[in-house]
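2024-03-11 09:14:02 INFO worker-7 job=invfold-0412 stage=load source=structure_tokens
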């Protein structure tokens, strides 16, 4: 994924002090402390999720069969309101274990309103690269009491988290302001987020134009404006902003995204499962809008496997634009280089080039479902590979997955903790939903 988009055969990657030092054939290994032989496998830049909700992984399979606004008000918000710090940690541990196991080294995450320290603590201990922040919600219909916050309180808690975590652990953990979406935020909150993000040099991460009913509600809430157009008026556009979904866009909004260089994160699995629609990604890419890939949350997708998202992204445009609508290289760019842009880390990760962080994923494409190997390895990666095909993962040059086994997390302990917390969360969540 370098500038020339080269596919190097029988090449070596030399890592020194957490960064890529050299790439090429026949590199000398004398003096190196460790050699990992990955002959016959594919070495990729670490894959990246551009939109995620680690707080929701505990609710996988508990919110099926609902559209977005009902999904939020009847299930997800009550469940999120029932979280405490321990259950949040269990949900985050489960998230990062699943992501690393499927080849992901970095993500842009939006939490719930409280307990976001637990997500950063989980990423810290897992060795994961995280850009994330607490959800900001100072308005909204059907919001449980446990998620309601004042404008001042939301801003104060976000700034405190930023002070504690932004740039910590050698820059591996970074903060992003995360106003949830238009319908849960006052104009005052959004304008202040826009100002603070520029002042402190941090990202903004929010949702836009995910569902048709949501966009209609936004027009009523804003006096006739669409999501992106409204964000534009309050200052929430620019290369430091990542907007998840963008399924229902007007021509004016596409123009605003292009002119402002705002990043879009495409979440095809979530958009299909919630019945939200199919984003016109071919048009966005043709317009020069950077588009990343994400799974969204486990309850609206049920899998966080980025290979699943790559396959969906590669084929969903075909009925509208023909079988060559999305080249495999473009899709892999969405999961690597454009993912890095979604996190504001394009100078640090996203390609295998000297000077970049040694975030690397090694994939075995010799399985039955990928055989016989086609002439184009990109075809195997995008169309047939699975997260379970990942053999090794390195973040900052450190192995976090070795021969398919997690090294910084214990899978059995993570699952046991998740199972221990889930029923406790679901019971109060159901009571909150009944009162809402």
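2024-03-11 09:14:09 INFO worker-7 stage=emit residues=436
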């Amino acid at each position: 994924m370098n500038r020339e988009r080269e596919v190097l055969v029988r090449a070596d990657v030399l890592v020194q002090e957490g960064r890529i030092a050299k790439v090429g054939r026949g590199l000398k290994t004398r003096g190196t402390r460790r050699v990992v032989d990955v002959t016959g496998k594919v070495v990729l830049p670490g894959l990246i999720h551009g939109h995620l909700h680690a707080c929701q992984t505990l609710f996988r399979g508990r919110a099926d069969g609902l559209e977005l606004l009902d999904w939020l008000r009847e299930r997800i918000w009550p469940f999120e309101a029932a979280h405490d710090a321990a259950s949040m940690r269990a949900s985050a541990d489960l998230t990062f274990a699943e992501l690393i196991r499927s080849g992901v080294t970095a993500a842009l995450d939006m939490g719930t309103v409280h307990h976001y320290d637990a997500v950063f603590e989980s990423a810290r201990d897992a060795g994961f690269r995280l850009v994330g922040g607490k959800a900001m919600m100072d308005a909204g219909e059907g919001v449980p009491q446990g998620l309601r916050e004042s404008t001042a309180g939301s801003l104060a808690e976000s700034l405190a988290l930023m002070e504690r975590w932004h740039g910590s652990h050698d820059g591996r953990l970074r903060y992003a302001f995360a106003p949830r979406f238009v319908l849960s935020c006052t104009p005052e909150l959004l304008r202040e987020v826009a100002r603070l993000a520029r002042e402190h040099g941090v990202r903004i991460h929010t949702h836009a134009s995910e569902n048709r009913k949501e966009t209609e509600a936004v027009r009523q809430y804003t006096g006739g404006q669409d999501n992106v157009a409204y964000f534009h008026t309050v200052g929430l556009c620019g290369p430091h902003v990542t907007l998840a979904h963008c399924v229902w866009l007007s021509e004016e909004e596409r123009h605003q995204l292009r002119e402002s260089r705002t990043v879009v994160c495409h979440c095809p699995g979530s958009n299909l499962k919630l019945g939200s629609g199919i984003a016109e990604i071919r048009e966005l890419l043709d317009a020069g809008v950077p588009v990343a890939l994400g799974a969204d949350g486990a309850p609206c997708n049920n899998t966080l496997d980025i290979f699943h998202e790559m396959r969906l992204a590669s084929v969903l445009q075909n009925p509208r634009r023909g079988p060559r609508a999305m080249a495999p290289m473009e899709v892999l760019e969405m999961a690597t280089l454009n993912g890095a842009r979604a996190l504001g880390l394009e100078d640090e990760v996203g390609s295998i080039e000297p000077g970049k962080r040694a975030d690397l994923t090694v994939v075995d494409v010799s399985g039955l479902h990928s055989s016989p190997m086609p002439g184009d390895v990109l075809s195997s990666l995008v169309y047939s590979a699975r997260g379970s095909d990942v053999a090794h993962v390195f973040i900052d040059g450190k192995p976090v997955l070795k021969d398919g086994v997690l090294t910084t997390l214990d899978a059995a302990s993570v699952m046991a903790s998740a199972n221990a917390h889930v029923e406790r969360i679901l019971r109060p969540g159901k009571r909150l939903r009944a009162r809402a």
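2024-03-11 09:14:09 INFO worker-7 stage=report msg="The first strand starts at residue 12 and ends at 16."
2024-03-11 09:14:10 INFO worker-7 job finished
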